[in-house]
Amino acid sequence: MIRNLFAAALLAALCAGLITAAIQHFRVTPLILHAETFEGEGGHSHGAEAVAADHEHAEGTADHTHDAVAATEAEPEEWAPADGFERTAYTTLATVLAAAGFALVIGAVSMFAGLPITFANGFLWGIAGFVTFSLAPAYGLAPELPGMPAADLAARQVWWVGTALSTGAACLLLAKTRAGWAFAVAIALVAIPHIIGAPAAPDEPSAVPAHLATEFAAITLGTSLVFWLILGTVFGKLNDVFAARSATVPAGATA
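^ thats the sequence. predicted structure below, dont judge the formating
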């Protein structure tokens, strides 16, 4: 059973990851590349201190000492894949690996909670995954483009994990029981992270146009919804296929 669940999770992750990577390549990546052009412009429009803090080099920085400039230039640039095939390949690999991680998580939840993932309910598992890992966290921390102001990374990660755990627990509770008290507890679990509030981004100007940020957030959430629906549905279908095959194998026989 565990072997079948593991195989179904990985195959479903491969399918969902590749399709999602294709959508990202044509819909998400162009927006990121567009935003990066504004990020460069925004860095040069800042004052000399902001330029130094961002490790951006510009002409006319007479206020800096030669030592400060030398120290800045000595800083090694952070590695990033080159635009084109290399960037697409790394993005695809990262998407498939993330899909595998999410698939194994919901597979483990399914096994320990006694709630099998089937083709009939795979759609619901996908909706639950989308709400848990994308929609609920995005309500407080919307997807961000390069160049947009953001709160402290550690604080955002803590809030994101807490929100995902709380929302996931609410979904699991409602999947196990429909009692009135369960709805009340589920509502509280979903609401608590948002009552606490997500870490606020600093009030700083951004060169990224508002319409570009809005489009990116909408497309990112839409892509995530497609990802989760594919993952849940394919996972459920493969579980049914593997279960049917196992049922036809006589006891004690090897597949």
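The first helix runs from residue 2 to 45.
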